[in-house]
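Appendix C. Worked example: Dynamin-type G domain-containing protein
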Amino acid sequence: MAPISNGPDLVEYEDANMENQVPLVSSYNDHIRPLLDAVDKLRHLKVMNEGIQLPTIVVVGDQSSGKSSVLESLAGINLPRGQGICTRVPLVMRLQHQPTPTPEVFLEFNGKTVYTDEARAADAISLATDEIAGDGKGISNTPLTLVVKKKGIPDLTMIDLPGITRVPVHGQPEDIYEQITGIITEYIRPEESIILNVLSATVDFPTCESIRMSRQVDKTGERTLAVVTKSDKAPEGLLEKVAADDVNIGLGYVCVKNRIGDESFEDARKEEAQLFKKSSTSLQD
Ligand SMILES: Nc1nc2c(ncn2[C@@H]2O[C@H](COP(=O)(O)OP(=O)(O)OP(=O)(O)O)[C@@H](O)[C@H]2O)c(=O)[nH]1
Ligand SMILES: [Mg+2]
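Step 2, the predicted output written as C-alpha cells:
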C-alpha cells in the first residue's frame, strides 16, 4: 500500500521550506511566530485553568498503540517507548525552530528547569516522570514540558498522553481507567484541540476505546486525524480498512511504520518506504 502520508515527510517538508523559500520564512517569522510565542506565553500564564483554550495537537490512543513513537518521529527526538504502560504523565512537547546550529533541549516540571540534550532526552523524561508520578506504574495529571529549540523543526506544540488501559496492574489504583480517561478528556475536549487518534493496524478500529472517546467530544470528526501505526505487523487488508472509514474520521488517515528498538530515524524511514512500496506493488498485481 502506498503511504497516504507519513510523519517524517512532514518534518522534511517544513525543513525544505525553511531553507529554500525565504519569503515564506520571513512571513512565517513576521506573522506566525509572534502568534505562537503569544500562545506559549498564555500557556505559561496557565490561562487554560481559567477556561481560555489555546490551539494544541493532542495524541490519544489505547495503551502501547504507538503514540510516543509517532511523536518522536515527528519531532526527531527520542522519547521513552515500550510495552506496558510507558507514558505516565501528560508530556507537553514544544518544538521551536531556531536559527542557531546547536539545539537546546530542556524539561520544565514542578517549578524547575532541567537541561538535557537530544541523546539523553528520553532518559531525562523517564527520570522526571518517576519524580512526578512515582517509580511504579502509577500516573499523574501534573504535566511535564519538553522544550526543543532546533534548526529546521516545525513550530508545533504537541501533547503526548498516557494510553487507555482498563485493568489495574502491579499496584495501579483500582480507578486507573477513570484517571486516564479523565486526563484524556481534559485535553481533547477543547474545540481548539486537534486530536491525533493513534490506532494500531493490528486491531479492528471500531473496538478502539480512543475512537469512542474522541467521538464523544468531536461527533463529526472534523478535528480528528487517525494515525495508523504498526503497518508492518498487519499490511494485509490495511488499505480496505482505512478506505472503509467505518469509524468516521473527519480529517483522514495517515499510515506509518515507526522506528523499532534502537533503529535510527533514517533507517526506520527507509524501512517504511520499502514496506509501502512492496505493498503497493502487490496491490497492483
Ligand atoms: N512493529 C512495530 N512496532 C511499533 C510501531 N510503533 C510502535 N511500536 C512498538 O510498540 C510499543 C509501544 O510503543 P509506544 O510508542 O511506547 O506506545 P504508546 O502508545 O506511547 O504507549 P503508552 O504510552 O504506554 O500508552 C513499543 O515497543 C514500540 O516499539 C510500529 O509501527 N511497528
Ligand atoms: Mg507513550
